[in-house]
Amino acid sequence: MEEVLLVDDIPVEEASPKGGLITIWTLNRPNKLNALNNKIHEEIKKQCIRAESDDNVRVIIIRGAPPLPIEEGQKGKPPSFAAGADISEFENKNSDDVRPFFEDNAWEAVWNLSKPTIAMVDGFALGGGTELALSCDIRFASERSNFGQPEINLGLIPGGGGTQRLCRLLGYGKAMEVILSGNMIGAEEALRIGLINAVHKSEDLENSTISFAKKIAKKSPHTIKVAKRTIRASLDLPFSEGILTERSEFVALFDTEDKEIGVKAFLQRKDALWLGK
Ligand code: COA
């Protein structure tokens, strides 16, 4: 049977505690531009449970499978991260049919991970594809990538968190422009408006993304989690409460072994060997 989500674990030798790895999830429906069908959602949710429970997983990278070699007489498919939710699963469905799926979906499962997530986008990231990238903490893209929320052209709006996450990331006006127009946004424009963190040449994208992920994987996994949840708190809390949250998270780190290890390592000009607590 078609494996719609491929999983590769890359060990990070210098990670501490030992055994640290980066897990790479590849959306694997290249002939359908990696459109996110029910099965992919189920597989992503399963991998989220595994990533959360496995202490060795330090960083998660999500990408799309590249196009398959062109068969004779056939038209090749364009490179894609994911060209959206699978539109073929929308036909003849009413609200009762789709509600259970949207109440328990992969976009929120990824968003709710306590560990850092990176979307590595090479090609189309449209609709649910842009939303999956938005569910990640960081987005790197190749020059040939295109983002957008074309749901408006289907008589729909984004349903994977796009209205909320785009608004917070780009601001009200830009989110309105992107969602109401359904326009595609090229990589340079996406970078300029803050939708993505960096643009790389396609051939450099994987190495650059993995080397960035390794950098994070070598930090204290405990401190990384605290940093993520403290930054995340800013999305929900009024500013003054956010400052209080940061203060309490910061102060609590003074009771961890990793803070002592990190400070001593700096003062002794050595590498920190984290315990993850
Ligand atoms: N859901 C289901 N199938 C999709 C899909 C989606 N979101 N996006 C692309 N596909 C399928 C096409 O049906 C086609 O399948 P086929 O070869 O079996 O006919 C295949 O992927 C290739 O797509 P195609 O449209 O032929 O490629 P293209 O290069 O001409 O156009 C896009 C690329 C991305 C512009 C175009 O596929 C597109 O607009 N896709 C839908 C984007 C969208 O609206 N997403 C939001 C969904 S809520």
Short description:
It is built from 11 helices and 10 strands. With 277 residues, it is α/β, with parallel strands linked by helices. The protein has 2 domains: 5-217, Alpha-Beta Complex (2-enoyl-CoA Hydratase, Chain A, domain 1); 221-267.
Report what the structure shows:
With 277 residues, this protein is an alpha/beta fold. Helix content is 44%, strand content 17%. The strands form 2 sheets. It has a 6-stranded mixed beta sheet, with helices on both faces. Strand 2, helix 1 (38-53) and strand 3 (57-64) form a beta-alpha-beta unit. The longest helix has 16 residues, at 38-53. The radius of gyration is 20 Å and the shape is globular. Coenzyme A is lined by residues 32-33, 35, 77-78, 83-88, 124, 126-128, 150-151, 154. Coenzyme A binds at residues 32-33, 35, 77-78, 83-88, 124, 126-128, 150-151, 154.
What is the annotated CATH architecture of the largest domain? Alpha-Beta Complex
Uncertain regions: pLDDT < 50 for 5+ in a row?
none
Radius of gyration: 20 Å
The class by helix and strand makeup works out as: alpha/beta
Order of SSEs: EEHEEHHEEHEEHHEHEHHHH
Largest sheet: 6 strands, mixed
Q: What's the CATH class label of the largest domain?
A: Alpha Beta
**β-strand amount:** 15-25%
Briefly note the CATH topology name of the largest domain.
2-enoyl-CoA Hydratase, Chain A, domain 1
> Tally the helices: what do you get?
11
Q: Helical proportion?
A: 40-55%
**What strand line-up does the widest sheet have?**
1-2-3-5-7-10
CATH homologous superfamily descriptor of the largest domain: 2-enoyl-CoA Hydratase, Chain A, domain 1
Shape: globular
Give average pLDDT, whole number.
Answer: 97
How many strands? 10
Instruction: Provide the number of structural domains.
Output: 2
Bound molecules: coenzyme A
Straight-line distance between termini: 41 Å
